[in-house]
Each structure stands twice: as structure tokens, then as C-alpha cells.
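Form 7-S
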Amino acid sequence: MTDLSRTYADFGTREARGVSPAYERLALAVSADEELLALIGALPEAKWQPNLLFAVVRFLGGPVDDPAAFRDWTLANWAAIEPQIRGRATQTNEAGRCAALLPVLAALPGPLALLEVGASAGLCLYPDRYAYRYGDHRLGAGEPLLECEATGLTPPARVPEVVWRSGLDLNPLDVTDPADIAWLDALIWPEHTHRRARLRAAAAVAAADPPHLVRGDVLDDLPALAAQAPPEATLVVFHTSVLYQVPAPRRAAFAEAVGALPGHWIANESPEVVAHRALPDPPDAALYNVLALDGRPLAWTRSHGQSLAWFG
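Output:
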């Protein structure tokens, strides 16, 4: 099995299984399809992500519920699909990730100045504006309501006070632009109607008070943006499922740069992307991120914030 074939097989069996039957079927079918793999393999390796291909097909109106129909449509429309893949990124802006971040944010001394790296449209910059439910424990007010299955910790008693929020992204999206919202919608997996409703509700929150988003590089432009945070607030630089798009040497340089800033650093990334020593076993064979504060691992989290297993 080639690396590309394995990428699609792993996505199907570890990430989509039990979460998106449609994407599990597509990923496994693509992993064994030499003609599709040849087309994908001609792209830069950074563009091999299954979710990027599937989202582009959805964005262009193609079928994703049947592998045979998907194959036929993708082969027939590759001339339109390829430039979209090359020009776009998996900028999934899942507000549900705030439920995984909240236990750490709520424990930090406030008020907070939030700086998200890889902010997309900035929907995760509003953890103080959303409502949460961890089992029977509910806090916050308004919409959307973010639900998270949490084990190993007492859920936070309050939402944080946020006095400054800003984001850094190579291609920031505009929550008031219907085309950008349509791309974010295409990135949501087919069966996840609850996530589509959540996207619309979170986008309404952000559009009422648009975030300050800066087009820039994760490393080169971070210090200047961080310097704009009010000095009386606790600076928190955070990111979720972003650094896999950054080459490994620049990830190491980023870790050094963010560690030199005042305040705190919250990383919510795959353990293959941000390495930690002596991690406990994950809850099961699914794909998990590791939630870490200032380099110290605290919990296993699912990529959309739907669960958190605390071990810190």
C-alpha cells in the first residue's frame, strides 16, 4: 500500500468510522482506486487530505453519498476539481472545539486576550459567547450549545472573560461572505446536520462582532500580532488541528517563538504533529488530538470537540 493509499484507508478506518459512514465508504474506495490515486498523487503532498477532496466535490455540487457516483463525477470533473484543491485548504472552523478548550481557558487568570493561529473565519475566538453542556452540567448562555462528552475532570464553573480576540491565517475567511460560509459548510461531513446548524449559529455570533483577522504566516507574523494584545490581559495563543499543514522544521521554530511570548500557549494537535513524552494510551483506536498547556499534555480530544478524556 502506498503512502497515499494508506492516508485514505486510515482516514476511513480511524477518523470517519463511526462518525461519517459516507466518508468512510468514500475513503476506503479511493484507497483502492488506482485511477483516482494517480490524479490525487500528482498534487502536492499537502493537498492529499481526504477531507479536502471530499469538501471540494461537495462545494462544486458533486455526489458524496455513493462511491461509484463519486468516482464517475470526480473523474469527469477533475479539470474543475484540481484548481479548487490547489487553491483551498481544510479550514474547518468548528466552534465545537471551544468545548475542549474551555476547561483550560476557564482556569487561566483573566481577563484573557485570545490569539488563534490558523483562525479560518474566527469562530473559535468566541468561547465566552457560547453555551456548553458536559453531561448534566451546563454553563454559558445563547447559541450555539456545544456538547462534549468529558471524562476525568470536573467541568468548568464559568466561561472566561475575553477582552481582546484576534486571529492569524494565511487565508482568513469572512463570516459575512456567503461564499466563505458555503466553503465552511462544504467542509462539514455529510451526515452532520447538527454541525451545520452550529456553524450558522456561531457565524451569526461572529458576524455581530466581527473578529480581527490578520492575513499572515504562523511564524513570521505571530510576534507582531501578539504585541497588539492589551498588556493588562493574559495572552493566550491557541490552535487546533493546524500545525499538520506546517513543515516540521517550522513547527519546531513556531514552538520556540510561541514559548518566548508572554502568557500561555494552548495546543490541540495530533501527537504525530506535536510530540509529547509519556502519553497515556488513548481511549480507543480513533484519531485523537492532545490538548496541552505550555507544552504539558492534559487530555485526549476528538477533532470536533465532541469528547475530552482528561489525564493531566
